[in-house]
Design goal:
With about 160 residues, the protein is an alpha+beta fold. The chain has one domain. The protein is built from five helices and seven strands, in the order ββααββββααβα. A hairpin with a 2-residue loop joins strand 4 and strand 5. InterPro entries: DUF6912 (IPR054206).
């Protein structure tokens, strides 16, 4: 049986194989839930991954030339990790799963911000700092894309 987990990453990172990443999943007790309780635990895991991705993309980053880099668009990858994947506790009720590589055939879906929401967050980061951008993203829903839509998503990002 697989563990549905959520990989925080970026569209740029998806252009190459994902290796040595960590994903968020409900812990063993959460994975044993059923019905709405299970769906709630899954949703919370995705939200945690989304917050981690927002934090990572809005951390002050500098390129090798010393010019501040534009934030890369965040993506949450819903992934079915092998049950044998190593885990460690992230916080009560949730684990971090270490993945040596992500087998793209095991990806269930991708979750991205709406264009307008992303643009607003980038502008807020420039004007008011990373926390304002992260708060804006945290207050919005992510759009769902089927795993078969990756090429389209990467093409739209150009």
């Amino acid at each position: 049986m697989a563990i549905r987990c959520y990989v925080p990453t970026t569209l740029t990172a998806l252009r190459s194989p994902l290796t040595d990443v960590r994903a968020v999943a409900p812990d063993a007790q959460g994975r044993s839930l059923r019905g709405e309780e299970f769906e709630s635990a899954e949703f919370d895991a995705m939200c945690i991954a989304a917050a981690l991705a927002a934090n990572a993309v809005f951390d002050p980053a500098e390129t090798q030339t010393g010019i501040e880099a534009a934030p890369e668009r965040r993506v949450i990858v819903a992934y079915d990790a092998p049950e044998s994947s190593p885990t460690e506790t992230l916080t009560e009720g949730f684990d971090l799963i270490s993945l040596g590589d992500v087998d793209m055939t095991r990806v269930a879906s991708f979750h991205l911000d709406e264009d307008v929401v992303w643009d607003e967050a980038v502008q807020l980061a420039e004007e008011s700092g990373p926390s304002a951008a992260e708060d804006r993203l945290g207050a919005s829903d992510l759009l769902w894309y089927d795993s078969s839509e990756l090429e389209q998503l990467l093409g739209d990002a150009d």
